[in-house]
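Dear Dr. L.,

I hope this message finds you well. Following up on our conversation about the binding site, I have prepared a predicted three-dimensional model of the protein together with heme C. For your records, I am including the exact sequence and ligand specification that went into the calculation, followed by the structure tokens. Please feel free to forward this to your student if that is useful.
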Amino acid sequence: MKTVLLEISPAAMLKAALSFLSLALVANLATAEKDYDHQLGVQLFQLCSACHGPEGHGKRELLAPSIAGLPEWYLQNQLRNFKDGKRGAHPLDISGLRMRPMARSLWKENDLYVIARYVAELPPKPPVDVLTGGDPVRGEKLYKTAGGGCATCHGEISEQTKKGPPQDYLQDWYMLEQLKKFKYGVRGGAYPKDNKGSPRDVDGQQMKAVMLQIPNEQAMKDVIAYIRQEANKGTLGKKPTQEAATKTTTPTKTNE
Ligand code: HEC
Ligand code: HEC
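The resulting structure of the complex is given below.
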């Protein structure tokens, strides 16, 4: 009698405990989605603004990109990626290593949701171009062919896809950093490589594959020059707001 109890109860108790835990988690996630508190967003954003600027338009000197107006799904994904070490854990990822602890401070699921929605609602701003030496004509070919064409995932005119983030408000210097990271395995991989348990960045891996067809830094600059040229015309990715569209009529491009 005694032995039977000992054999059954630990396993049964564990099972019961686990199913209770997962039920509780599911319940938490389900309510989290609905609990948007704008004031909490304002509060949480104070931390972000130290690096991403008071309106979320980025600070290049801190390597922090513009995040205002990025889609909520993408913001949530990236914050989770940083939190889980899928992004920003590689020892050579200087800028990602700065962001990772910030995402880890969002330990409540609802905080992560609230800040993602808050940032998604901030108005984006057309960036000032700083890179030089990119050739948009060569870049157009790459844009239309590499990985089956960037638009396959990132979307065409006034389209919002969920296969890739929109490209029209990304800063050129930030894009170059990211393309280099994807190409050289600093983003979009698993670190450490020999640890089978380390989380894999499945979405980022798609970009790694695309980068096989962008041979070097010059080619990266070319494709970025094309993206910026089209973005300045308002013909790339999601449709710019009326205000943004008027601002882009006087582009401050330094590219040829
Ligand atoms: C200590 C400075 C710092 C703070 C504070 C900070 N970030 Fe960042 N963040 C960065 C840097 C640097 C990057 C660029 C990482 C890279 O190059 O991969 C970044 C990248 C990001 C990205 C990825 C953007 C993209 O296009 O993929 C998101 C999203 C983001 N931050 C959101 C936030 C939010 C939300 C907060 C506030 C909770 C925050 N950050 C606070 C420095 C910071
Ligand atoms: C097969 C789909 C696919 C194709 C084709 C593709 N991308 Fe991506 N791209 C993605 C995904 C997915 C992400 C987000 C990765 C992540 O979650 O970290 C991304 C991310 C990026 C980023 C980083 C954005 C940010 O905010 O950090 C840049 C820059 C980028 N892509 C540029 C390009 C360019 C340029 C091309 C064409 C040469 C291209 N992509 C083709 C799927 C694609």
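In brief: The chain has two domains: 36-124, 126-250.

With kind regards,
A. P.
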